[in-house]
Write a structure and sequence with these properties.
The complex is a heterodimer. Chain A is an all-alpha fold. Helix content of chain A is 71%, strand content 0%. Chain A starts with 23 loop residues before the first helix and ends in a 6-residue tail after the last helix. Classes of the chains: A mainly alpha, B alpha/beta. Chains A and B meet through α7 and α8 of A and α4, α6 and α9 of B. Chain A: It is a multi-pass membrane protein.
Chain lengths: 306, 314
């Protein structure tokens, strides 16, 4: 070792560089950091606990209503004990299923179009309308469906009108989430595929969509969950039905309508319990749906993902 | 005179030229053990074997009066240049001179960007790739591309990445043939030994240098005639860079190669021909000088070229 080493620190002498945590600025930063961390932690906790309270309340209140009959039987006369919400479960599945059948492909298609080809005035217009539609009150959409498909069209309250209203609510949600997710896919993957001599459509289907799959699925599930709980448009279109019905051109039972009926139109305590029970069933159905879609996506996906 | 003789002589002259410019292949790991050296030699032999099996060689690519725009921005103006069959042509120049843009024009990747436009002719095998009735997808099957940032498909395994070009193009082969293509292409990209036991793992799990060689394997799996490389080593460490440069030296036997690089030593090491591009005050990039690498680096004809290669250039 040659040359002058830096002089060893002289005891008591103040070092030239301040690395001390006791420095005023450093201390203040630590305090602010602590406060901010606590605040955002509290915000997260608040959000989760509100959700937990709602869920817990519904479970506590709804669980007593649940038994085999509740899932398999039709509702009894108002105020009578027993019976179940089987027609409503079936009606909800039918109405939401039909809405998804229309809404998911249209929403996905529009989202893919906007993200992959959407340049120019037409695309901007589509984007603008989709944004407007996400903000439309669902009861307004229900009213339009009522005017076109109940008052005119089929001429009576019917399930199709309800599905159309729900599909209209779903489409802009799926369109915009799909577009945003696809925009996150790095462009160099598209270019890598194109440079191999892959046609544009094949690049989108085989390279871009698989990368974005989980994000797109989240958007789709969210939209299905959202419309499953919609009540206002169904009141104006599907109306409700105490009997099991497969007739899409007539009134049909649905879980949100059942909850509404039991909670508001009946003085009996048993009806309230049933309303809670129906709420719980709705949550369980959405939960199961979301879980199974995610599971299916994971099983069908690549093993090694980082 | 056979081509191989000619090529041999040229390589010799270029290697002499290199020693004067940069320290040649000095980037090779200096302290390699005998075992490592034996493995490297074996790998090289594998690469050569694979490349020699390729049916047909590279074909030349001729650019005539190429202009490119991004929207209303004129990016390159009137570039004419020849990429000779089975030789490496380097494109050098400062950032923003349009060399990458020009490279992307060569396989119709420029037009993929919004508002991008190309004019001029690019002839491959006598046909203009911008001619009427020419399908850009077909063009890209003959003119492959390796990008600056390694971009393996993240949702695919190493195996699937290699055959991605075939699968995406709907080419169906039996499993055994696919296996063969994968091994063949990975050997050709000097990656086989490192990944042969983990072909099912994600391509994204490899190191940057390995990912770039995976991208090269993916490109040669579709057997193009021309391979374009856009700064393929700029994100890689010296050892990975060295491996890829070695590979380029082997690949040129059967492929025509165009490489954009910011690294002048790299150009002098790998290229037979070099072109220097520059963006003038007007903003668009133009070709300043084109010639044998040796000549460009030792006796540049243009003052601007000399300024750039000697580092006097701002």
């Amino acid at each position: 070792m040659q040359g002058q080493m830096t002089a060893p620190s002289i005891p008591g002498a103040r070092p030239r560089l301040s690395l001390e945590a006791s420095d005023g600025q450093a201390r203040r930063r630590k305090i602010v950091n602590g406060i901010m961390t606590t605040l955002i932690g509290a915000a997260a906790l608040l959000g989760v606990s509100i959700l937990g309270i709602i869920l817990g309340y519904i479970i506590v209140k709804g669980a007593p209503a649940l038994n085999l009959d509740f899932f398999t039987k039709a509702p009894p006369a108002l105020g009578e004990a027993g019976g179940g919400v089987a027609p409503a479960i079936r009606g909800s599945l039918l109405i939401v299923g039909l809405a998804s059948l229309v809404g998911i492909p249209v929403g996905l298609g529009a989202g893919i179009y906007l993200a992959e080809f959407g340049r120019g005035r037409f695309a901007d217009t589509v984007r603008f309308i989709a944004d407007l539609m996400t903000g439309l009150p669902s009861i307004a959409i229900g009213a339009v469906a009522w005017a076109l498909l109940v008052k005119r069209g089929i001429g009576t309250y019917n399930a199709i009108a309800g599905s159309v209203a729900l599909a209209i609510i779903m489409i802009p949600i799926i369109t915009r989430t799909t577009e945003e997710i696809l925009k996150l896919v790095p462009n160099n993957l598209r270019e890598a595929s194109l440079a191999l001599g892959t046609p544009r459509w094949k690049t989108i289907v085989s390279v871009v969509l698989p990368v974005a799959r989980s994000g797109i699925l989240t958007g789709v599930i969210l939209s299905v969950a959202r419309v499953s709980g919609e009540t206002a448009p169904l009141l104006l279109t599907v109306l409700g039905n105490s009997f099991a019905s497969n007739n899409l051109r007539g009134p049909m039972a649905a879980l949100p309508l059942e909850i509404y009926q039991y909670a508001t139109k009946s003085p009996f305590a048993d009806s309230f319990t049933k309303a809670w029970g129906a709420s719980l069933v709705l949550i369980i159905i959405i939960g199961l749906l979301s879980l199974s879609v995610r599971l299916a996506a994971r099983l069908g996906g690549p093993q090694a993902r980082r | 005179m056979s081509t191989s003789e000619r090529r041999g002589r040229e390589t010799a002259t270029i290697e002499t030229a290199q020693t004067g410019i940069a320290d040649g292949r000095g980037m090779a790991p200096a302290s390699a053990s005998p075992a490592e050296m034996a493995q490297a030699a074996q790998e090289k032999a594998q690469v050569r074997e694979v490349i020699e099996q390729k049916a047909g060689g590279g074909v030349s690519l001729v650019a005539e009066g190429v202009n490119a725009w991004y929207g209303s921005t004129h990016a390159i103006k009137d570039v004419s240049m020849t990429f000779r069959a089975n030789e490496v042509t380097a494109l050098i120049g400062p950032s923003g001179c349009g060399k990458s843009t020009f490279l992307r024009c060569l396989n119709r990747m420029h037009e993929v960007l919004a508002g991008a436009r190309v004019e001029g002719k690019i002839l491959i095998d006598g046909q203009d790739i911008y001619g009427k009735g020419v399908d850009s997808v077909r063009v890209r099957r003959h003119i492959g591309m390796v990008f600056q940032k390694p971009n393996p498909f993240p949702m695919m395994s190493i195996y699937d990445n290699v055959i991605a070009g075939l699968k995406l193009n709907g080419i169906r082969k039996r499993k055994s043939e696919m296996d063969e293509t994968v091994e063949h292409s990975l050997r050709g990209a000097a990656l086989w030994n490192e990944v042969k036991d983990k072909l099912k793992e994600s391509g994204a799990s490899l190191s940057g240098g390995q990912q770039q060689r995976l991208c090269i394997a993916r490109t040669i799996a579709v057997e193009p005639e021309v391979v374009l490389m856009d700064e393929p080593c700029s994100a890689l460490d010296p050892i990975s860079t060295y491996k890829i440069e070695e590979l380029i030296g082997e690949l040129k036997q059967k492929y025509t190669i165009a490489i954009v690089t910011h690294n002048m030593q790299q150009a002098s090491r790998v290229a037979d021909w070099t072109s220097f591009m520059l963006a003038g005050d007007a903003g668009y990039g133009q070709l300043v000088e084109y010639g044998r690498t040796e000549q460009i680096f030792t006796q540049p004809q243009d003052k601007r070229t000399e300024d750039y290669i000697t580092g006097r250039f701002g």
